[in-house]
Structures are given as structure tokens and as C-alpha cells.
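W.,

You were right to be curious about this one. When I first looked at the sequence I had no strong expectations either way, so I just let the prediction run and decided to look at it fresh. Below is the sequence, 294 residues in total, followed by the output.
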Amino acid sequence: MKTTIFAVALSMISCFAYSQNKPAYLIYSDGQEVQWTDLVNAAQASDIVFFGEYHNNPICHWLQFELTKELYALKNGKIILGAEMFESDNQLIINEYLSGLIKEKNFTEEARLWGNYKTDYRPLLEFAKENKLPFVATNVPRRYAAAVNNGGFEALESFSQDSRQFFPPLPIPFDPELPGYKAMTEMMQMAGGKQGGSMHIAEAQALKDATMAWFILKNLQGGSVFLHFNGAYHSDNREGIVWYVNHFVSNAFKKIKLKILTISVEEADDMGVAPVENKADFIIVTPSSMTSTH
């Protein structure tokens, strides 16, 4: 009985402390609260780190930048950056900008940047520029995702070899029973979409995941950590990009043994309660009342 009372009291004190201190974030792993250094150390020991974000969450973007800086120092510069927010056909423009061959004005006008680039992703690209790091545009150009959304993977067969350099070799592998894709299909069906159209939406999503995985693997370097920034959906539960990385390693990139680390995010009213779903190796919990970037 005394033990139970003590546990309740400790919980109340903990909750009170959280409310008084108002931390910007807490980190959990396997249901237990851990420290930032635990996440950094695990990232340092990995080959690929997927930092899954909410695109409008400023704490995510800040911690992405902090992790980048710390990994750069710990790995003596041996890190590679890559992001969903840049499309593969813009790699040349990114390389030209990082090399100082073109001005930022030209880069921002031509690279089809996201609306929150300046506040949320520019610091990462500028860090790469200042420290001469590779920055990989991993996502599929949106025109190809749109084509698949309209006509399925078969639509990619109509594009030229020049076009095909911007996504993985055909045919694109696809497992419609993966929970994320299956849920997307079922949701569209409930919304009144046709069976074919609903499946095409999942295929378009899969093309993005497959392309990101493909360009991550193509740009891996031994001894370096590839730090990839993407929406949490793309790597939660080791589906999406992670599934494709493992598939391509087994079928296209032989004899590569990879240590993959996943990071995700949740927003909560009570940050002191561990996330119910263990969807990543580390889960960053931020206040649901936090102001979003857009």
C-alpha cells in the first residue's frame, strides 16, 4: 500500500514539474524517457538516420539542425545530408549552389522550394554549404508522382530514359498490404474514390518512398552517417522509405549491412506520458500548444 501511495505521489510531483518547467520537448525510447545525448550517440553509431518530422513543427527543425551540427563534430565531418523537401531533378542546381557557382537568388528561383524553406530547411542547406558537405535531393519530381497517381506505375513506362534517371529502375516494387499504404487505400475508398484511383494514390506515395530510398543508397559512403529529413509518415514503423531501403539492399545493393535509426515526433497535451505507439527508435514529444511554422 505504501509503495502504491509513493508511486502516485511521485507521478503527481513529476506532472507538476513538467507543468512548471514547460520543456520544449521530451524524448522517449522503448516507452522510457531518455536524454538528447542518448539519441545523438545512437545516431553516431548508425549508417542511416531517418529524422521523421511534422513539417510545421519548429522544434523538429531546430533539433534537426542541432543533430546535424553534433554529428558533424563527432564524425569529423563524415556526414551526408539528404531530404524529402528537394526533388532529384534539382540535384544539379543544389550542387551548383553548394559549390558557389550560382547565387542564392538563382537557386531559390529555380529549385521549386517548399514554402517554409527559408525558416525550416535553409539552415541545413547553408550548413552543408559552409562545411562542404554533400546534400542529396532524394524525392521524386512531383510530375512523376502525379502521373502515377493518375495512371498507376504503368504510367512510368511511357517516360524516356532521360526521365527515368530521376526515380528507381522499373518496375517499382510495391506491397499494397503494408499497413501505411493499405490504410491510405481504405481511407480513399471510404471517401468514395474508385478502387483503381485509390490504389494509384498509394502507388504514388510508394514512388516517393522508393525514390528517396534509392538515392540514399546511391549516395552512401563508408564510415559516414547519412542523415535524412522526411515527414514522419515516410519512416514510422520502419515502413515507407525504410522498407524500400531494406528491399533494395536485398535485391539491388548486394552485401550491404546497414544500421538504420529512426526518429519520429508526436505532439501531446501531457508530455510526461510516454507515447503509446512505439513507432520509432526515438520519439520526440513536443507540446500540442506550440506555435506551428505554417
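Here's what jumped out at me. The first helix runs from residue 2 to 21. And, maybe more interesting for your project: The beta strands are 26-29, 32-34, 48-53, 79-87, 135-139, 225-231, 260-268, 282-287.

Coffee later to discuss?

I.
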